[in-house]
């Protein structure tokens, strides 16, 4: 017998009710569901509801809290657990509260219901991977540590920032450049990473820097029937071919397994603009005098940005071929180097004790981790690294398909719970770390 639409809806409702009842048995999971159910998707994230929820959690954990608006209606929450030696550089656990938009009809479960599939324990929701999981895992780890009367030596800050998904300019960027941040004397930041389809966690020490390139070609206009040199279209096509060859050379390195995705320069054409519009389409018997193309480029800090810029000026948009170019990202050019000319990355060798502490803590929780990687896209961690503060990208999600920004984003219940255990181990290791780091030495010099 066919089931009617209302019948289906009723069944769905019953299913949701059942899954939330099941979850209610586990307060940890039910808190995660509550956070996921707050719709903080762009373009109109409900930040205030998220703030209320986080603040109520902070209160239950007796953490000090403050809400700061670096931009109107874009609240950032800063929680504090004061250490026994607050003069030591502190630990910052960062996460963003916003999520990317959804196309609900393409989801198997409603994206803000946080329904649990009872067959396998998967929790479906936008933000389940990116990155409400991490934000609440920090808090759950703190809850457990407090229950066992753990007392941190170093002060622990937990920040919940807005707007990461739209560039972080009114969130982490303003925060990292604020007096509030300076006063926190942060020694290490933990921020987001990516899920890993295999059993090893992924750790990120840097990220690629976005560079948006627009190249423009000019040439004499002419009749569509005429063959002549140096048309705008021909000039642009030569450049596109050159860019395409470069892209293939980089992609081949990844395909051959010689480099990871984050270690090569990616170049992707994102628009192509040319032609003379007519009421019915385009004028067909006219060769246009202008043509342009746009490219999204991502450069790892281990690449030679200056040589890429030379390649752009000499090969991709040479003045000799009547070409010009604009380089930018959010109207300003980004660089893989900081103001002192050093590549923006966090050391992942013996010179950075935090890295060894992190690996040791993961080891202790009986989990594996892979080779340190460069994050292929951008996260808020870059703003902290730019300030010279080490930042490690890590989201404890192994055996999980990468579904950030995708339909049917989910995280398994057991994987979420395991992640809390791992953060307990990390926070314990970081907050108990008594030895002096380079930053500690510098702080002492100032005193
Ligand atoms: Zn994210």
TrEMBL record:
Assigned GO CC terms: cytoplasm
First-tier enzyme category under EC: hydrolase
A GO molecular function held by the record: metal ion binding
Cofactor comment: Binds 2 Zn(2+) ions per subunit.
Cofactor(s) the protein needs: Zn(2+)
Subcellular location field: Cytoplasm
Gene Ontology BP annotations: amino acid metabolic process
EC numbers: 3.5.1.14
Main location (coarse class): cytoplasm
Signal sequence coordinates: 1-23
Residues binding Zn(2+) 2, per UniProt: 130, 165, 405
Matching PROSITE patterns: ARGE_DAPE_CPG2_1 (PS00758), ARGE_DAPE_CPG2_2 (PS00759)
Keywords assigned by UniProt, alphabetized: Cytoplasm, Hydrolase, Metal-binding, Signal, Zinc
Active-site residues from the entry: 98, 164 (proton acceptor)
InterPro entries per record: Aminoacylase-1_M20A, ArgE/DapE_CS, N-acyl_aa_amidohydrolase, Peptidase_M20
Residues the record lists as binding Zn(2+) 1: 96, 130, 192
Protein name per Swiss-Prot or TrEMBL: N-acyl-aliphatic-L-amino acid amidohydrolase
Record lineage: Eukaryota, Viridiplantae, Streptophyta, Embryophyta, Tracheophyta
């Amino acid at each position: 017998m066919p089931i009617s639409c209302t019948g289906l809806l009723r069944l769905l409702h019953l299913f949701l009710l059942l899954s939330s009842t099941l979850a209610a048995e586990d307060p940890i999971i039910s808190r995660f569901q509550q956070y996921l159910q707050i719709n903080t998707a762009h373009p109109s994230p409900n930040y205030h509801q998220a703030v209320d929820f986080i603040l109520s959690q902070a209160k239950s954990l007796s953490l000090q809290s403050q809400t700061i608006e670096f931009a109107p209606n874009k609240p950032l929450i800063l929680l504090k657990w004061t250490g026994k030696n607050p003069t030591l550089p502190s630990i910052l656990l960062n996460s963003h509260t916003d999520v990317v938009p959804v196309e609900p009809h393409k989801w198997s479960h409603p994206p803000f219901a946080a329904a649990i599939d009872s067959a396998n324990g998967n929790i479906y929701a936008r933000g389940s991977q990116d990155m409400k999981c991490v934000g609440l895992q920090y808090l759950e780890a703190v809850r457990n540590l407090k229950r066992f009367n753990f007392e941190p030596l170093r002060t622990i800050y937990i920040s919940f920032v807005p707007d990461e998904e739209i560039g972080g300019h009114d969130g982490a960027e303003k925060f990292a450049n604020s007096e509030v941040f300076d006063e926190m004397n942060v020694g290490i930041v933990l921020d987001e990473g990516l899920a890993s389809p295999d059993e090893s966690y992924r750790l990120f020490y840097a990220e690629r820097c976005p560079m948006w390139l627009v190249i423009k070609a000019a040439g004499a206009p002419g009749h569509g029937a005429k063959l002549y040199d140096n048309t705008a279209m021909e000039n642009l096509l030569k450049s596109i071919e050159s860019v395409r060859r470069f892209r293939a050379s980089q992609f081949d390195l990844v395909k051959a397994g010689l480099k990871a995705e984050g270690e090569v320069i990616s170049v992707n054409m994102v628009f192509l603009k040319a032609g003379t519009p007519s009421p019915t389409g385009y004028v067909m018997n006219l060769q246009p005098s202008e043509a342009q193309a746009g490219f999204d480029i991502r450069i790892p800090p281990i690449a030679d940005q200056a040589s890429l810029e030379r390649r752009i000026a000499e090969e991709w948009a040479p003045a000799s071929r009547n070409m010009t170019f604009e380089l930018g990202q959010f109207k300003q050019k980004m660089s893989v180097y900081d103001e002192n000319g050093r590549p923006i990355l966090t050391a992942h060798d013996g010179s950075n004790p935090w890295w060894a502490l992190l690996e040791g803590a993961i080891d202790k929780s009986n989990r594996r981790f892979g080779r340190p990687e460069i994050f292929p896209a951008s996260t808020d961690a870059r703003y902290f690294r730019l300030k010279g503060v080490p930042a490690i990208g890590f989201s404890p999600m192994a055996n999980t398909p990468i579904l950030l920004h995708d339909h049917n984003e989910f995280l398994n219940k057991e994987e979420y719970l395991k992640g809390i255990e791992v953060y307990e181990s990390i926070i314990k290791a970081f907050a108990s770390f008594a030895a002096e780091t380079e930053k500690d030495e510098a702080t002492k010099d100032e005193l």
